[in-house]
Specification:
Shape: elongated
Order of helices and strands: EHEEEEHHEHEHEEHEEEEHEEEEHH
Strand content: 25-35%
Low-confidence stretches: none
Number of helices: 9
Number of strands: 17
Oligomer: single chain
Strand order of the largest sheet: 14-11-10-8-9-15-17-16
Structural class: alpha/beta
Radius of gyration: 26 Å
Length: about 300
């Protein structure tokens, strides 16, 4: 199971450490879900998932403050005895003394922040979903074309990088060349980025390595983007039948998610960059409810009815 160090969470969200003497360098989170232990502080633990990050806000803190001291100690002890990974207290609220006591006993760090609870939870869930998402590495090029993330795939040497460079020259943005790290952040969303070591670089056979950010400026690159469309480049084969109308969508499955895909045959004289642009715009139109292939088909059918 994938996990992320708690230290990275602390650094990302600038959390205060209420127990500075505790070493949490080898502690980690393995779930993207978060829990506010309201019911657990009342003594109800059925279906409780102790491996989630626990967050306390004003409601939970106020509830605890109104409990008799002996009851509060008992409820807090019960939560920490489950072995939660860590506790974050929002809105600048201070931990109760018994929280610190049982945290030290169970070796569970407690952190704090000034952020409102709902806002903190929303941001942390988004961040954890990306960090803990299932991931694969794919051979290809990812480009932001008119806001659509287009993953260009195909055999080595077929012209993916050259197409990416032409697209950058036409005002679009490079995300990754050669290797694309793909993460599944939800059942509908895939995101792609480049390995840090080769980020913003393009390899052109016969020329060498090009730094796109230095050559074209920061507006020509992007660190991360959704994957909305797959374009697979293949050598033109006169014996093969290629899609002419586009009435039926084809899909490529990546990490269990289906992504609309097009197989584009390549031969001398075809401008791959313009084809990618047209495919991206056409895909965007379809998402907005306009399907040119179906409209043309309806016109043809109406002509035959006359």
């Amino acid at each position: 199971m994938k996990s992320i160090p708690i230290a990275q969470l602390v650094e990302e969200f600038h959390l205060n450490n209420y127990i500075p003497e505790m070493d949490y360098s080898d502690m980690s989170l393995s779930l993207a879900d978060i829990n506010r232990p309201a019911l657990q502080l009342t003594g109800f633990f059925k279906e409780f998932e102790p491996h989630r990050l626990q967050v306390i806000g004003v409601v939970e803190h106020t509830y605890l403050s109104e409990l008799p001291e002996t009851v509060r100690k008992e409820r807090i002890k019960a939560v920490f005895d489950t072995g939660i990974p860590c506790l974050v207290i929002c809105r600048g609220l201070e931990p109760f003394p018994e929280m610190l006591t049982y945290a030290v006993i169970n070796k569970i760090p407690i952190f704090g922040c000034q952020t409102p609870t709902t806002e903190f939870i929303g941001e942390v869930i988004k961040w954890l979903k990306v960090q803990l998402a299932p991931q694969i590495n794919m051979h290809g090029v990812l480009v932001d074309i008119y806001g659509e993330g287009v993953l260009i795939t195909g055999d080595s040497g077929i012209g993916k990088s050259e197409a990416a460079l032409e697209l950058v020259k036409r005002g679009h943005r490079l995300v990754a060349d050669d290797a694309v790290e793909v993460k599944k952040v939800s059942a509908q969303t895939l995101i792609g980025t480049a390995p840090e070591v080769i980020r913003y670089f393009i390899e052109l056979r016969g020329v060498g390595i090009i730094d796109v950010r230095q050559m074209f400026g920061v507006e020509a690159v992007k660190t991360i983007h959704n994957i909305d469309l797959v374009i697979n480049l293949e050598i033109w084969d006169d014996k093969s039948e290629y899609e002419r109308l586009g009435l039926e969508e084809s899909y490529t499955e990546i990490l269990g998610n289906k992504v609309v895909s097009h197989s584009i045959p390549i031969r001398p004289g075809r401008n791959i960059a313009i084809i990618c642009e047209a495919a991206a715009v056409n895909h965007r139109q379809k998402k907005m409810g306009y399907n040119s292939a179906k409209i043309l088909n309806e016109r043809i059918q109406n002509m035959h009815k006359r």
